[in-house]
């Protein structure tokens, strides 16, 4: 009976640790992971201000590495 009580106490302490980590995890998702994911998504689209996003796939990367002289010279 005593071991069961100690087990639940340890589980509460573990859950409390996750609760303390939750603000950091939320901040990481909002301020780090979301911008990285959206940058990756936008890199596969063609967007002109005021128009909709057009998915172009790897065309942006092909243009940069084959036709853009500034990238070749750098």
TrEMBL record:
Q: List the membrane topology term(s).
A: Multi-pass membrane protein
CC annotations in GO = plasma membrane
The protein's matches in InterPro entries, at most eight in alphabetical order, are given as: MetI-like_sf, UgpAE/MalFG_permease
Principal place of residence? membrane
Name its cellular compartments: Cell membrane
Q: Does the keyword Nuclease apply?
A: no
* Organism domain of life: Bacteria
List all membrane-crossing ranges: 21-44
- Which keywords belong to this entry? Cell membrane, Membrane, Transmembrane, Transmembrane helix, Transport
Protein name per Swiss-Prot or TrEMBL = Sugar ABC transporter permease
């Amino acid at each position: 009976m005593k071991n069961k009580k100690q087990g639940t106490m340890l589980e509460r302490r573990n859950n409390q640790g996750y609760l303390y980590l939750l603000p950091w995890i939320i901040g990481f998702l909002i301020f780090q992971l979301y911008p990285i994911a959206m940058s990756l998504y936008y890199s596969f689209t063609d967007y002109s201000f005021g128009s909709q996003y057009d998915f172009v796939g790897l065309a942006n990367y092909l243009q940069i590495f084959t036709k853009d002289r500034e990238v070749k010279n750098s």
